[in-house]
Queue: 2 jobs
Job 1
Amino acid sequence: MPVTNLTDLLDPARCARLVIKVGSALLVGKDGGVRRNWLAGLVEEIAAARATGQEVVVVSSGAIALGAARLSLARGGRASLADAQAAAAVGQIALSGLWAELLAERGLAAAQMLVTLDDLEDRRRYLNASATLVHLLERGVVPVVNENDSVATAEIRFGDNDRLAARVAQAARADGVVLLSDVDGLYDRDPREHGATLVPLVEKIDARIKAMAGESSTSGMGSGGMTSKIQAAEIATRAGIALAIVNGTSDKPLASALQSGRSSVFVPRRNDAGRKAWIGGRIAVKGALRVDDGCRAALGKGASVLAAGITMVDGQFRRGDLVTIAAADGSALAQGLAEYDADECRTIAGHKATEQAELLGYAPRAAVVHRDHMVLL
Ligand code: GLU
């Protein structure tokens, strides 16, 4: 039985390991001060969850907002990358201290982990992060994770903690993610519009669901918005992890959300394991291969991408880089690791295996993207 509501996500029998992501607007008040009482309430709920046997990983935003207030920076510290990095450095130390202090009051040890996008995109570093998370959880520790904003540059940042939470959930082998936010969940249109209705359950994230996300970020304090939450849900649900978006503004946010009955839950779509889940959750795409209808149909039946079906090659990627496989109309079908550099792909695109050896000057590989290194989107 798949997880279909928040009650399931908070039940250790249904969800043994849960990632709770806390948005900046919940942690930091409009005056730039920490919402300490609110946070103490959440920590009480985390301690209660641990007491029932549910393991919890926290993904906490708020470093930039907190640091910006302390440094009196304009636009919440997001006016420039340099401001954000400085603000994060100042804010992070306070943020970690706060989590450690409040968790300790409930008898729990906190662990700080700061990660960049690259840490989780590189397979070896991803496995290291995963091992550390699992090791900490097994020892009853509550890992508190954030992006290492002070060292990540614009190109290699997650930029939002929603997708980070989904990736961390994969790495921690969690069963569920709760994104605590300042909106009730996904609405079928802009929530400010008359008649907008909350979508309680999403079984498949398609174009219709993505269109609902629009530009509906509310607080202006974090960088998430609904679009990044839907992207996070895609990453999580492909890896067999349920994800809920709930409004966490009230005290005791988990209990309040349960009581209000308002949330959007994204049901796990399939259960990609291990390496496949890692490929499906990767974010830094280096290029794209456009394929014909024959190749598209073959992909649906589990085939690899062969050069003969490729009609166009975009980008400058290297062998081993992540590429998108797109249909003739540009829609993304799959993502996977390229077996060739981009220029070699251009050389053999549209050609049959028998012609490739002469074009390449060496024996061709079995596929351009092998099905073992590819996931359908
Ligand atoms: N990592 C950022 C911070 O701690 C937050 C990113 C986000 O807004 O999601 O401030």
Job 2
Amino acid sequence: MPPGTIWRIGVEAMDPSRNRKTFLSERVSVLVGDITEQDVDAIVNAANSTLLGGGGVDGAIHSRGGREIRQACEEIRRTRFPKGLPAGEAVITAAGRLPARYVIHTVGPICRPGREPDGRMLALCYRNSLALAAERELRSIAFPAISTGAFGYPPEQAAPVVSETIQSFLSQKTSLERVLLVFYEPSDMTLFLKNQRFTAP
Ligand code: APR
């Protein structure tokens, strides 16, 4: 099967050459990879409210993107969010040394053990990040699995929220043509695919 051939399986299509599945007439791609390596208009950072870096996605973006990102975040803290970026909100900065043009920083909901995860807040992270990209007429955006790492959001419960939020956003007129969902581990991608709720466009 030549690279780039798309298999259609129901609503999803599998491109075996690139281990990526697509949905919504190939506007959404689900793949395994490193968010910092995505060559798109904007990548989304799973930040915390300080905007001053951390581990996981946040650590990788700041360490590979360089000081320019940190300086832009410090400026945002100083001028707009002196008390920190509230959960669900999204802000945009330059991307420093990363292949992407911009970084959209959003703060996901923290999920405490035994507590119901806050799906509304998680949906806000994705919707506000998409809206910020569309406001800038961007055409492509890549998301990591926000809140499903250190913030403890159960990935199998995140998948329906994420897929429904993205599908609803893309059903309206927007500059966005490509949305990538980038998973660090193949097992995370498999779990997402099992629980996603994309429907045929
Ligand atoms: N590329 C893509 N995905 C990644 C990468 C990467 N380079 N690094 C980690 N991930 C995955 C994790 O495996 C997890 O599935 O991203 C998902 C989100 O994990 P976190 O980065 O821990 O983000 P989150 O759960 O939102 O927690 C945010 O952690 O790093 C700190 O400063 C950050 O306090 C904030 C909190």
